[in-house]
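re: ur question from earlier - yeah i can do the single chain one, its not a big deal. heres the input i used so u can compare w yours
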Amino acid sequence: MKWIEARVVFDHPDGELAADLIASVFFDLGLQGVVVEDPGLEPEQAWAEDAIGRPAHYAVTGYLPQNRQGEQRCKVLEKNLKRLQQNLDLVFRIHYRTMDEQDWAESWKAFFWPQQISRRFVVKPTWREYEPDAGQMVIELDPGMAFGTGTHPTTSLCVRMIEQYLNPGDAFLDIGTGSGILMVAAAKLGAGRICGIDKDQVAVEVAAENLKLNGVPTQQFQLQVGNLVDSINDKYHFVVANILTHVILELLDDITRVLADGAIFICSGIIDENKNLVTTAMGRRFDLLAVDTKEQWVAIAAKRRAHGA
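and the output i got, formated as tokens:
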């Protein structure tokens, strides 16, 4: 299989904000992750000798399968970036190149290093070495073609909330599971039955491998391909949806069907400007517990009201 590398090199006074907004354009195309090159990022002291140097320019790179759908996505990418350019006073260039699968798989690995994403969790790629500090939990991750490295702010926000609200033994559901990192975190924190659903067959396969890699017994988890909760029939004590604002709003019409009374529901993938839209919609159905923000991204924790409440 061949891939299209779409690298957006850009200039803007607020590079981090622009990078997040460009990344969100890629996420709207269904990508699970992107590579962000930040010229202001200081290399970690523990980086090995093969670490890449500091980039010369800000850039965001996404990878799309080279097929008819992939080529159409490139056109949508260009259209949405031009709209962003008008609203943000952004200067950008897109560079495309075609890559074989092996080259694609290796091209982004240089950007991925162990990173602490919450108070207790460190995400470590399988090809790196890391010695955890006392009290740290390590999530071994090989993103594969699901390409969710676990370092995006929304992942960090979700993991923080899972740490805070998950009770041992809770049945856990991850909607849009990607690389499976939230399922792994839940399992390490003592969740009981774990289920993940994603519309992408490749993501489901990668998530299964990552769960096994982290020692989660196969009898503890279930993964399936599907749209949101359409095929989910069981009820869960804890549900996470790290997706996009418009999908979350669609999901709210059906989510209570899979939530036990008093269940916790966490959603993220929401940009800051959409926060009030989502909290208002959730407030009609749930008791809001917390709203957390990181780098212009928002996560919301809520609790399902008991029947009759």
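Residues 2-111 form a domain with the Alpha-Beta Plaits fold (CATH 3.30.70.120). not sure if urs matches, ping me
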